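User: Modeling request: complex.
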Amino acid sequence: MPDHIKSVCEQRVFEEVFNTHSKTIRNFIYYKCGDSAQAEDLTQDAFVKLWNNCAKVPFEKAKSYLYTLANNAFLNEVAHKKVILKHQKSVTTMVSHENPEFVYREKEFKGELDRAIANLTPKQREVFLLNRIENKKYKEIAEMLAISVKAVEKRMHGALVSLRSEIKEFKK
Amino acid sequence: MEHQNNDTYLAKWLAGEMSENELQNFKNSDTYADYKFLVDVVDNLETPDYNQQKSYSATLDKITKQQDKPVTKVRALIPNWAYAAAASVVLFFGYTFFFQETTYNSELAEQISFELPDGSEVLLNAGSEIAFNKFNWDNNRSLDLTGEAYFKVQKGSKFTVTTKEGSVTVLGTQFTVNSRNNFYNVKCFEGKVKVTSDKLNHILTSGKAISIQNHIATPYTIIESSPSWTAQESSFNNVAISQVVTELERQYNITISGKENLQAAYFSGRFSHNNLQLALITIFDTMEIPYTFDANSNVRIQKY
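Assistant: Request completed. Predicted assembly structure:
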């Protein structure tokens, strides 16, 4: 923006910010609370607040402002549900041998994985899923959550260790 | 090889930040296959569907709906003087709207019907006019009538019909008022009607009628349950023949010539609104009045 400072007060800019960040923020909250309707609601509330304070929030700060709001809003909410993720595509595509036993094991595995993810600590879960599903780099996550990159790495590591230990399949 | 002293090596591995040597060691460890499989599965997971557009419009809705006034520049769009101007306009039109009289006019050979603000029905006979004020109608049901009209009055406050000859106040329900030059006729079909004219005060009950011609009141009884003119007929009970002829002119929108030839007489009977020839026969033939009626519908009363 050479001679024009982008202002979130312009609806065009506001919509651009929304389109860029709303999905990730919604998922970010979803990873915390496991309720997609509630996550969407809190996301929208965060954007309403951004609009109301558009004059005070510079365009460049909008993203971190939104994450802070979403995070705070979540802290005020009590309801927590189990985070359930969908299989994007069959695991079978990664394994060449497809047989009934494998399909059965895959289903069983998915159930165990859901449970294992739910049993992660909230801090591990949000970091782990932001990285694996939202493809956020550790540095970005660190900025979002206002923690150090080292802390992010620890949570990532801890999440993987915890997942592995929770799944019986690996204990054989 | 185990990495027990390192609490971030898995994170490094995922980020592709392991050194060649470390990676090789990790791949040789017995946990590598598990982690690899786990991450492959997790990387293919998806969050619940998200409709960004829907969520955006929901957000805009929330913004518009919020009650506490947000920071915005929308505020000053309408300056205060505009409200004053708008109020004056409303007052001006409101005044004209509320206090202006509403008038209904029926043309010759035309009957119109309409409802008053309280739902009372009015059927206006040919060549008549009614004026009333819509404002505060429920508390002040009064209207001015010139000509003839049939009223079906809804229950409520006093209902008054004012004419040049006098006024009619409704105590009950259905009645007709006919007020033409020097002729005043009120028929009560249902309920009770009070007729006031000059010094006369008369209460008509259902089935009673009163006719006042040249200040002489003649009460009589009617048998029909609604005025005959509402059924395409005009009926008369001892009415001056000149009145009957003007009614005929009104109903057919014609001019009858030679009216000066008419001699004083009273007519009782009815004529149809649909057949002029038949109507002429009913009036003039029965009264033995000579007349001509040509192909162009010109009617002329002859000397007799």
